[in-house]
């Protein structure tokens, strides 16, 4: 069943987020030369370029260790704060991993950053996919759906602490009795994003998340996820928005863009990609229904570690703008983007692609009004 919402007409402009390269090696598992750097100065400048270019959000990553390269990893909350301090409009989404993070600390840390940044911090609750990471830091590795049960309690705890005085909660993982956090976050409350696309991930989104982030995919597959989540969410009175990952290769001609994609894949680090493929079997493929992230990813797909090539934002600015509109038609509210050379390509995206997307959106609205 497809659920249509009155507030969908006219839809909001699609939003843009970029992946913060706070992890070394860029966003592809490839030895192709990249001008992207994981260091703080590069990232501060990138955040400024992004907000000048029309991006609304930046998403940091959390890794304690990585099995596919990504040897150096700055911590997500501290790094997010540095980016907020360097910008004035951009919202920064800090990734939190239940297990290492407890909701008590996370709620307080994020409330303080929210106060310091005028309400520009958001969170992405990730549920873990790499058992080796948990083993390395001595955290118990729960089975797939149990990880989501914990994440859901984590989200309920965060929201409860942020919105209620005398918060009381009895979960299997977390418990609160008459707890009052002061100060609470600034207005607006930090938005709660989540990553993952398995049954358990979707059900959690339908129940408690503000935003659902999924791996790269075709508009048809995104539409199927959106319909599924929105139908269930409506029953819960929730209305999660949808963010879709994509790796952008925008060039003056389609041939040039495709040549860059081939070069990335030809330079893929086969051992690292295979190691990553092996690890993610513990994530999506291990979900009971076998439908999670990476359940159907080929070797080439895995070279971009969140299936970003599948979304096919690879081509000329006109082609990419049209495909972004197709994603929006499929129900996406936000495109989460990665690039090979972030600073230059985020600026190029802002100059050449966002205006085309806005023009297409305006033309569509005009047609709708005339109809
Ligand atoms: C956009 C996006 C961002 C993510 N960021 C992180 C991250 O920073 N750290 C992490 O350990 N996992 C991250 N994940 C992984 C998810 O939280 C989840 O564990 C994984 O996608 C498995 O999902 P599944 O339930 O669909 O199998 C991210 C996933 C998505 C889609």
Automatic annotation (TrEMBL):
Residues 30-333 form the Luciferase-like domain. InterPro entries: DMSO2_SphG (IPR024014), Luciferase-like_dom (IPR011251), Luciferase-like_sf (IPR036661), SsuD_RutA_monooxygenase (IPR050172). It holds the Pfam family Bac_luciferase. Keywords: Flavoprotein, FMN, Monooxygenase, Oxidoreductase. SUPFAM superfamilies: Bacterial luciferase-like. One of its GO terms (biological process) is alkanesulfonate catabolic process. One of its GO terms (molecular function) is alkanesulfonate monooxygenase activity. CDD domains: Alkanesulfonate_monoxygenase. This is Dimethylsulfone monooxygenase.
């Amino acid at each position: 069943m497809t659920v249509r919402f009155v507030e969908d007409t006219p839809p909001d402009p699609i939003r843009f987020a970029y992946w913060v390269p706070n992890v070394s090696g860029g966003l592809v598992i490839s030895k192709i030369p990249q001008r992207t750097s994981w260091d703080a100065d590069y990232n501060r400048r990138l955040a400024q370029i992004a907000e000048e270019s029309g991006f609304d959000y930046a998403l940091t990553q959390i890794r304690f260790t990585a099995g596919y390269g990504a040897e150096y990893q700055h911590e997500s909350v501290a790094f997010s704060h540095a980016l907020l301090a360097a910008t004035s409009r951009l919202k920064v989404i800090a990734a939190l991993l239940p297990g290492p993070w407890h909701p008590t600390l996370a709620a307080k840390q994020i409330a303080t950053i929210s106060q310091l940044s005028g309400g520009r911090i958001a969170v992405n609750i990730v549920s873990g996919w790499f058992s080796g990471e948990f083993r390395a830091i001595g955290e118990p590795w729960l089975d797939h759906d149990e990880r989501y049960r914990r994440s859901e309690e984590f989200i309920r705890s965060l929201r409860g602490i942020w919105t209620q005085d005398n918060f009381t909660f009895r979960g299997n993982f977390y418990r609160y009795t008459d707890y009052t956090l002061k100060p609470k976050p600034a207005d607006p409350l930090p938005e709660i994003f989540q990553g993952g696309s398995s049954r358990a991930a979707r059900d959690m989104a339908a129940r408690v998340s503000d935003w659902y982030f999924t791996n790269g995919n075709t508009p048809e597959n995104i539409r199927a996820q959106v319909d599924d989540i929105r139908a269930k969410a409506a029953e819960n009175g929730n209305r999660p928005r949808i963010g879709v990952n994509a790796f952008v290769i925008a060039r003056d001609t389609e041939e040039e863009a495709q040549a860059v994609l081939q070069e990335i894949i030809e330079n893929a680090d086969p051992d690292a990609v295979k190691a990553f493929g092996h690890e993610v079997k513990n994530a999506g493929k291990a979900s009971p229904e076998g439908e999670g992230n990476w359940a159907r990813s080929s070797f080439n797909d895995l070279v971009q570690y969140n299936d970003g090539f599948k979304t096919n934002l690879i081509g000329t600015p006109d082609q990419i703008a049209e495909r972004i509109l197709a994603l929006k038609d499929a129900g996406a509210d936000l495109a989460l983007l990665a690039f090979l050379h972030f600073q230059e390509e985020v600026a190029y995206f802002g100059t050449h692609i966002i205006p085309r997307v806005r023009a297409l959106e305006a033309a569509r609205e005009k047609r709708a009004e005339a109809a």
